Amino acid sequence: MLLKAAVLLLTFTAPLRAEVNIQAVTSPGGIKAWLVEDHGIPFTSLEIRFKGGTSLDTPETRGAVNLMTALIEEGAGALDSQGFAAARDGLAAEFRFNSDLDGVSVSSHFLTENRDQAMALLHSALTKPRFDQVAVDRVREQVLSGLRSDAKDPAAIAADLERKRSFGDHPYGSDGSGTIKSVTALTRDDIELAFHDAIARDRITVAAAGDITAAELGDLLDKLLGDLPAQGAPQPVEATLQTKGGITVENFPGPQSMIIFGQGGLRFSDPDYFAASLLNEILGGGRFSARLMTEVREKRGLTYGVSTSLASFDHAQMLMGQFQASNEKVAEAIKVIREEWAKVAKDGVTEDELANAKTYMTGAYPLRFDGNDTIASILVGMQDLGLTPDYPKTRNEKVEAVTLEDIKRVAARLIKPEDLHFIVVGQPTGVVNE
User: CA–CA distance from 44 to each of 24, 72, 164, 381 (Å)?
Assistant: First the structure.
C-alpha cells in the first residue's frame, strides 16, 4: 500500500518548476479546489477524490465500493457501456475511476475545445451511472479472476495476512476488493448503495492543472459536482493497530519466501514526521546506502532488495517493510533486521547518514514533473494531508531543520523492536511462529 504522506515526501524532493503557482479556488457554489494554470498546451487535467473508499463497505458487502468504482464508466444516462466509451473517445477525453482504502478517485483530462462536452459526459457518470446487469456480471467476473489469482500469489497472501493481523475487524483488516464469497453475493442494489455512500459533496477534494482559469474552473465545478448528494455514509472510525511483535509463518510451496514486516508509525501531522522520514530513509529507504540494504543485501547477500516506508492512512499509521529471500536465508535476514531495528532505536544515526539523507530528500534526485495529470494528483494529495499551497516552497526548509538530536529522540520514540512483526509466506528453514 503506497501511501499519501510517504509518496508526497518523495514527490517534493526538489523545488517545483518555477512557473508552477498554486491557486486556491472557491466556486460560486462554495466548492473548493486548487489550480495550477498552464496555457501552453490546450488541455486540462482534473483530479477529484471522494474520501472514504473501500473502508465504507459493510462486512457483508466487502468489495462493493471497488466493484462500483469499476462500473461507473460502464454506461451512464442514455448511453450504455459501448455508447459511453464511444462518446468519451470521440471527445479525445480520458476518465479513470479508482478506489483504495481511503478514497474513490476520479481522474480526467480533456481538450479545451471539448471541455464542456467532456464535463457533461463525466457529470452523467457521477450522477446517473446505469449499472446495467450485463456490465455488473462482466466486471464482477474480472474482479473474481483477480481474487483467484491473488489466492496463489505469495505477495498478495502476505499482504492479506498483515492486514488481518494489524487491524482485525476494522475495514483496513481485509482486502478492499472483497472475497470470492462476498463479491459473488453482491447485488445491483448493493452497488447502488455503495455509489450513494461514496459519491457525495461532503467528502470531495479537487485539483486541476492546465489550460483553465480560476473563474472557468469555478463554473466547471458547480456544473460537475454541484448537484451531487450533500452527504454520504459516515466515515470509518480510527483503527486500533495490533502491536504485538513476533513471526507468523504461512506455508506456501516454493524456493523463496515473501516477507512483510512492520510496526506502528506516525501521523503526517506529527511534529516529528520530517525527522521520522529522514530516519526511515536512513534505515530502510530506497537507496542502496540505507542500513538494511547494506547489512542484508550488500554484506550478506540475503536478498536482492529490502525497503521500508512510513505508511500514513486516514485512520492508522505504520512503519512497514518487505523483502523476498531464499527459504534458507530467511532466518538470518530476519535476525539482521531485528538487530538493525534495535541498534537505531538505541543509538540513532550518524552525522554523515543524516547529511546524505537530507541531500537526497531535498534534491539530489530532483523530480521532473511530467505533465498536468501528475500535478493535479499531487495537489489533491497535499490537500488531503492538510497542507497549504506554499508547502512546496517550505518543505525543504523543514527537512534541513532536522538535527541529529531530533533523529535520536524520534528513533527512541518510534522504533519499537518489541513491536516488530514479520509475516512470512513460504517454507523458510528454521523459522517458526512466535
Answer: 17, 21, 41, 18
Reading the block at residue 380, the C-alpha cell is: 489533491
Could you tell me which of 198, 184, 199 has the C-alpha nearest to residue 123?
Answer: 199
3-state secondary structure of 205: strand
Interval 372-417: pLDDT, tens:
898 999 999 999 999 999 988 888 899 999 999 999 999 999 999 9
For residue 65, give the amino acid letter: V
Coil vs helix vs strand at 249: strand
DSSP state for residue 296 in the 8-state scheme:
I
* Chain segment 57-73, per-residue pLDDT in tens: 999 999 999 999 999 99
- Nearest-10 Cα torsion for 364, 394, 283, 159: -110
Phi–psi pair at 390, nearest 5 degrees:
-85, 5
Nearest to 78 by CA among 120, 30, 45: 120
Q: Is the pTM of this model over 0.85?
A: yes
CA distance 62 to 393: 41
What is the rounded CA–CA span in Å between residue 251 and residue 83? 48
